[in-house]
């Protein structure tokens, strides 16, 4: 704690462990919109955000709960749902005329093959241009949900086909 009078209190969101300002500044310097990916206990949230002085502007926002409109009956937090949420967000972003973005995963750990990178794969397959490394994506079997059940794999294909229309 403070030993002398020259102690500077950190910013509130840094103290609460919600924002890494060094990472945020690096993303904002790119000048591109950010593809913000967040996981909750029930859903996957994908937003395309643009910096503005008054606060970030959300241009596109999608949660995995939206998959219900396309006939998804599985969990909203598994890997196939993450991929489809990213795919849907990518399609909606392209309709708004945005073709590129940078990935913002916040304070989440970038684990190879995780749901975060399934979302990224979905956005890339939709046609967005997002810089990324190779070998970080989950396998095709996991993305399609075949590791869970055959039924989920069939549902995955039908939901993805509905999004392409």
State the end-to-end distance: 58 Å
Radius of gyration: 18 Å
State the name of the first-level CATH class: Alpha Beta
The CATH topology turns out to be Nucleotidyltransferase, domain 5
Helix content: 25-40%
Strand content: 5-15%
- Average pLDDT, rounded to a whole number, is 95
Give the helix/strand class.
Answer: alpha+beta
Outline, from the CA principal axes? Answer: globular
Give the number of DSSP strands: 4
Largest sheet entry: 4 strands, mixed
- Can you tell me the CATH architecture? 2-Layer Sandwich
Regions with little confidence, pLDDT below 50 for 5+ residues: none
Our count of domains comes out at: 1
Strand order of the largest sheet: 3-2-1-4
Query: Order of helices and strands, N to C?
Result: HHEEEHEHHH
Summarize the structure in words.
The chain is built from 6 helices and 4 strands; from the N terminus they run H-H-E-E-E-H-E-H-H-H. 29% of the residues are buried. The protein has 165 residues and is α+β, with helices and mostly antiparallel strands. The protein has helices at 12-15, 21-29, 79-95, 115-126, 140-144, 150-164, and strands spanning 34-39, 44-50, 57-63, 102-104. The mean pLDDT is 95. Helix 3 (79-95) packs parallel to helix 4 and helix 3 (79-95) runs parallel beside helix 6 (150-164). The chain has a single domain (13-164), classed as 2-Layer Sandwich (Nucleotidyltransferase, domain 5), CATH 3.30.420.100. Strand 1 and strand 2 form a beta hairpin. The chain has a 4-stranded mixed beta sheet, sandwiched between helices.
